[in-house]
Design a protein that fits this description.
With 286 residues, the protein is mainly α. It has eleven helices and two strands. The protein has a single domain (2-277), classed as ABC transporter involved in vitamin B12 uptake, BtuC (Orthogonal Bundle). Helix 1 (2-32) runs antiparallel to helix 10 (238-258), helix 2 (39-56) runs parallel beside helix 4 and helix 3 packs across helix 8.
């Protein structure tokens, strides 16, 4: 049982990383109805901000990580005001063409500035190595990811489901004209929501470096995983993204451990089965 529990834990930790990367897209796509295929470009931005602050400026890990969130959120506010806002009422094809173009631009800029090699960081010594609990080896950094993922999930649910701000976001999405008539600043609400989603992507990108590395292909490589998580979880559901990320993470790690001949195909098989069972996603309402 020890190896099995170890694989399940590693898979769940990887799922929490996928959750951190994908939950921002769940917010913007599910609540704002905007198809943002440049989402992982903000995650990549957070990663490169962390690398620059730590490796060039000598910032400590726990000071650089919050700046990844701030940098991604700040850039997203500018792009939201200049580009995204013009397409809120447009169709999904327009969303896709704009955001995939931004993703290609971000990849080219990252390759030009940082090169194409993997960018390492040095995490604090107390986050490295493993601990043994009841005969099970647990990676300390993976346990750290689990804690962060649980905290982010709880905070998002509380913020978007049980606060006045969350009610404003849902009202603005359902009927902008009525929301404006009630005195809600729709533009500011959308900008804050978009910044929140992009900032969470930046946070996920920064935390992902230690596990999966960072190079210019990150914006496209993990976009596939993020879209799978959002699709399986269901649009607009934080808990759906959480459960889907855990399932995909465990399936990926367990598949590579027990049936390596399938490789990464197992997560696509899981996605197909789940979407055939529930086309709207596990917790999706539409």
């Amino acid at each position: 049982m020890g190896p099995l529990i170890g694989v399940l834990f590693d898979g769940f930790a990887y799922g929490m990383l996928l959750f951190l990367l994908s939950v921002g897209l769940s917010v913007t796509l599910g609540m704002m109805n905007f198809v943002n295929l440049a989402h992982c470009a903000f995650a990549m931005l957070g990663g490169y901000v962390t690398v620059t602050l730590m490796n060039v400026l000598g910032w400590p890990f726990f000071a650089a990580i919050p700046m990844a969130f701030v940098a991604a959120a700040a850039v997203s506010v500018v792009l939201e005001r200049v580009l995204y806002r013009r397409l809120y009422q447009a169709g999904e094809l327009d969303h896709v063409l704009l955001t995939i173009g931004l993703a290609f631009i971000s990849v080219a800029m990252a390759a030009y500035i940082f090169g194409t090699l993997q960018q390492p960081i040095q995490t604090p010594s107390f986050l490295r190595g493993s601990i043994y609990v009841a005969g099970i080896t647990i990676g300390i950094y993976r346990a750290f990811l689990v804690i962060i993922g649980l905290l982010v999930a709880a905070l998002l649910v509380l913020t978007l489901e049980y606060t006045r701000f969350g009610a404003k976001v849902r009202a603005a999405v359902d009927n902008q004209r009525m929301a404006r008539g009630l005195g809600i600043n729709v533009d500011a609400t959308f900008a804050i929501t978009f910044a929140l989603g992009s900032g969470l992507a930046g946070l996920g990108g920064a935390l992902a470096i230690e596990i999966v590395g960072l190079d210019p292909s990150f914006a496209f490589l993990y976009l596939v995983y993020v879209l799978i998580v959002v699709s399986v979880g269901g649009l607009g559901s934080i808990w759906g993204s959480f459960v889907a990320a855990a399932l995909i993470g465990i399936s990926d790690v367990a598949g590579k451990y027990y049936v390596p001949e399938l490789g990464a195909f197992l997560i696509y098989l899981v996605m197909i089965v789940l979407l055939m069972w529930r086309p709207q996603g596990l917790f999706g309402k539409r």
